[in-house]
Write a structure and sequence with these properties.
The chain is of the alpha/beta class. Helices cover 46% and strands 11% of the residues. The longest helix has 17 residues.
Length: 380
């Protein structure tokens, strides 16, 4: 069985060169202990890399897209072959004139599939791999074409200054929240524009409500309740590149912990359903599920959730995000999964990647005894 989104969307292009789910929220939700076995949606790769810092036994990364796996594999190899400043240069986090030289150091250690992918994308290497996804190009249009029509550079930079909560609120209402801001924001982040420039139209098949209004409300929360000067996701949107604040996997203090556990990662171009069918005895202590249920029909959502509950150890946590589609846990899984509603609400209020309508955290309840077996996979 495969996810139905695989038949409705083209997965040959790199859609996400970065993960746009807040890694700090993910790690707090998972509450990982050393020695865990984890399943992670690859997506842009940085959240999967961040899981390695917890010293897991194994991280299984899955994605339907060979492009997303190539992105993760480049991060994986760069962490091993380059030092920290060079990693930031190659990936595009910091300015560099030697990205092709750094890529040539990494290239022999990539799989043939990843080599072919990146060899044909010289422009992505030149500008930095983490800037090259479709969604990142869409956001850069916002930072370079739309925002200058709303506020001058001076005002945009003022938004990123450290302020108290009261000062942020005053700045938002007195300076930032203009009629032009609301009008252009709603146009650019409308379903019509986003489905043509940012995300695949099929990703909106189960979307509900007014998308632009939801995003505008969440952006207001991020600009007032959270601190823009510490928000790596907001800074990237405003600047078109990383500023002083970096996501978890790219912070200097996490470079060595990730590097020490690179051999714990395995990559698979498969759907969750297919992988679990092929490894029925493998049990996981945590699941990073990105926003995969956003693209599933209600029936497939229920079936996949059941499979994940069956594959989880008692106490394992499932963490996923909802953007525009509301998903209610099937009643028949009430004795298998316990929603951690208060924790999820607390984390959603802290979520610096403010696109999402909800963060969902569920915990596997004890069921029949585990077989205690493990499946094997080929390491990179």
């Amino acid at each position: 069985m495969t996810s139905d989104i695989g038949t409705r969307a083209d997965f040959s292009e790199l859609r996400y060169a970065q993960c746009w789910e807040d890694t700090d929220v993910l790690l707090r939700a998972l509450d990982l202990k050393p020695g865990a076995t984890l399943l992670s949606i690859a997506s842009g790769g940085d959240n999967t890399m961040a899981l390695l810092a917890s010293c897991p036994e194994q991280v299984v990364a899955l994605d339907l897209s060979h492009a997303q796996l190539a992105m993760l594999e480049l991060r994986w190899v760069a962490h091993r072959q380059l030092d920290y400043p060079q990693l930031l240069e190659l990936t595009g986090v910091r300015e560099s004139s030697r990205r092709f030289d750094l890529y040539e150091r990494c290239r022999p250690h990539l799989s043939s599939t990843a080599q072919k992918f990146w060899d044909s994308r010289g422009e992505a290497i030149r500008t930095g791999a983490t800037n090259s996804g479709r969604f990142e190009r869409y956001l850069r249009l916002f930072s370079t074409r739309i925002l200058p029509l709303i506020h001058p550079y001076r005002v945009r930079m003022q938004l990123l200054l450290p302020r108290s909560r009261a000062e942020r609120e005053q700045f938002y209402w007195d300076v930032w929240d203009t009629r032009r801001w609301r009008w252009l924001f709603k146009i650019f982040f409308s379903r019509f524009v986003m489905s043509r420039l940012g995300r695949a139209p099929a990703f909106f098949d189960y979307a509900e409500g007014n998308i632009a209004n939801r995003l505008l409300a969440r952006s207001r929360h991020a600009l007032i309740e959270l601190d823009p000067s510490q928000n790596p996701y907001l800074q990237w949107i405003l600047l078109g590149h990383h500023g002083p604040a970096l996501p978890y996997a790219l912070r200097p203090e996490n470079f060595q912990p990730i590097r020490q556990n690179l051999d714990r990662l395995t990559l698979h171009q498969q759907s969750i359903e297919q992988y679990l069918e092929e490894h029925p005895a493998l049990r996981f202590d945590g699941f990073n599920l990105s926003d995969i249920f956003e693209y599933m029909s209600p029936s497939q959502y229920a079936d996949t959730l059941r499979r994940l509950a069956d594959a989880g150890t008692p106490g394992a946590r499932l963490v996923y995000w909802n953007v525009f589609a509301t998903r209610k846990r099937p009643p028949e899984l009430a004795d298998r999964l316990m929603p951690l509603t208060e924790l999820a609400a607390e984390l959603h209020a802290q979520d610096q990647a403010f696109f999402y309508n909800a963060v969902v955290v569920e915990e596997v309840r004890p069921s029949k005894p585990s077989l205690g077996l493990s499946a094997t996979a080929t390491h990179l």
